[in-house]
Amino acid sequence: MADLLGGQFGPIMDATKEIQDLCDQVKSDVENKTTKKYQEYKAVKYRNHFVARLVTGTIYLIKVHVGGDDYIHMFIFRYLNGGEVALRDVKDHQTIDSPLEPF
Asked: What are the Cystatin domain coordinates in residue numbering (predicted)?
């Protein structure tokens, strides 16, 4: 996926309420993909990248704390102007120290 982005992600920032809202919108998709149910599910860090190609919107790379020492990283795409939100990929078995890099 990283090769398809056509640019660079911005700096790593602390997650905001808006980022948590994006994560909440795709939680069931994340649970289906990882085959796990998350009692704890809190966005902690993120990076984003604006894309203007075949589709226009913003890609978010987000680190989410899912309990104990466990984290997941996820790619979420939000179409331009606050449109549809879609989970593109998720990577589990991450830690607080795992680099938040495209995968």
From this structure: 7-81
Q: Which amino acid is at 98?
A: S
Global pTM exceeds 0.90: no
Domains plus CATH for the chain? 9-94 (3.10.450)
Rounded CA-CA distance 5/32 in Å is 25
User: Are 79 and 50 in contact, with CB atoms under 8 Å apart?
Assistant: no
Residue 5 class from Cβ within 10 Å (0-12 exposed, 13-18 middle, 19+ buried)? middle
Report yes or no: 61 and 75 within 8 Å, Cβ to Cβ: yes
